[in-house]
Every structure is written in structure tokens, then in C-alpha cells.
Amino acid sequence: AVVSTQSRSGYFFLFWTDNGKFDIAMSAMNIVELIVLTMIFVLVVCSNTFSVARLKIVVRSQENMAGINKRATITVFILSVLFCSFNVTFIATYFCFVFMIQIPPPVFWIAMWLALPLNSACNPLVYIWRKEHMRQYLRREWHRVTNRRSETHTALTRVLSVV
Predict the structure, then answer these.
(1) Would you say 78 and 126 are in contact if contact means Cβ atoms under 8 Å apart?
(2) Angle, helix 66-98 to helix 105-113, in steps of 10 degrees
(3) What is the b/e burial string over 102-140, where b = at least 16 CB atoms within 10 angstroms of the residue's CB?
(4) Three-class DSSP category at 1
(5) Do residues 86 and 115 make contact, with C-beta atoms less than 8 angstroms apart?
(6) Which of 59, 97, 104, 121 is the most buried (most CB within 10 A)?
(7) Rounded to two decimals, what is the model's pTM?
(8) pLDDT, tens digit, for every residue of 83-100?
(9) By the 8 A CB rule, do 84 and 119 touch?
(10) Cα(115)–Cα(107) distance, integer angstroms
(11) Residues 6+ away with beta carbon under 8 Å from 74
């Protein structure tokens, strides 16, 4: 249960355990964790913003590298947007959890257990989409694996036909 009491600086959110005792350590830990997660998020967003701005400046100053740097800027921007969208969902849901704000269970589940892994899963997909040499490498490996399978299948067929 959550009880809020008025103080000079605002509201304190008090967490009570099932046996009726107040658990200030759990309340403090959850709030500190939320603050740290939010600070990390802001740090990454600021870092990505500065990186994109710096890449845009480099693109303008170096004509011969303009195409490569423009693609890098776009890639960093796409990764930043994905990071923000998935992590804002997580942080907002965690905020609701810490302050006992009711949200629908499917939203909670998606934000807490799906948003962060999806962020990590999207990064290689973005790189494959944006970088030609990665697509070429995947094609080569795909052909190597599928050719090896067909050779194994052919050899197995020959052995079985003899038996």
C-alpha cells in the first residue's frame, strides 16, 4: 500500500510491507534507482545529440568525406531515436511502478520486459540496413552455410542410397 504525507518540500511516498511495517529502505532504493536510470538516459541522449551535431559539422567541412559522414550521422540519429523511444517507455513505466501509479498490465509487461531487449536487438538490424559491407558479409555467410548444407545433404543421400 502507498500512503502519501505532506511535507515542506512536497509529498513523501511511504511504502508499507504486507505485515504492516513501513519499508523506507525499499522506497529510497526505488527512488534512487529511478533517478540514476533517468540520469543515464539523459547522459546518453546528450552524448548522441552532440555526436550528431559534430558529425554534421564535419560533413560541412570535409567535402570528400561528405557522403560517408552523412551516412554516419543518419545512422547515429536512427540509433538515438530507437534508444530514446524504447528507454522512455521503460523509464516512464518504472516511474509508475515506484510511485504506485496504475497502468494496464500489458503496457507494464511490454515496457519492462520487451522494450530494453528490443532496443538491443534493433542495433544490429540498423547496422545491417545502413552498411553495405555488413550486408555483403551476411550474404557470403548465408551462401556458405546453405552450400555446405546442400553438400552434406548430397553426401548423406549417396551414403543412404548405397545402404
Answers:
(1) yes
(2) 130
(3) eeeeeeeeebeeebeeebeebeeeeeeebeeeeeeeeee
(4) coil
(5) yes
(6) 59
(7) 0.60
(8) 888 988 888 888 888 888
(9) no
(10) 10
(11) 130
Chain-centroid distance of CA 66 in Å reads 29
Q: Where do the H-state alpha helices sit in the chain?
A: 24-61, 66-98, 105-113, 115-130, 132-162
Binned at pLDDT 50, 70 and 90, residue 19 comes out as: low
pLDDT on residue 110: 85
Contact between 97 and 126 under an 8 Å Cβ cutoff? The reply is no
Query: How far apart, in Å, are the Cα atoms of 30 and each of 60, 92, 111?
Result: 45, 13, 17
User: Are residues 44 and 101 in contact, defined by beta-carbon separation less than 8 angstroms?
Assistant: no
Cell matching residue 74: 543518419
pLDDT at res. 120: 86
50-54, long-range: CB < 8 A, 24+ apart:
51/76, 52/76, 52/77, 52/80
Cell of 30: 526505488
Q: Is 3 helix (H, G, I), strand (E, B) or coil?
A: strand
Q: Are 101 and 145 in contact (CB under 8 A)?
A: no
Q: Do 3 and 99 meet the contact criterion of CB atoms below 8 Å apart?
A: no
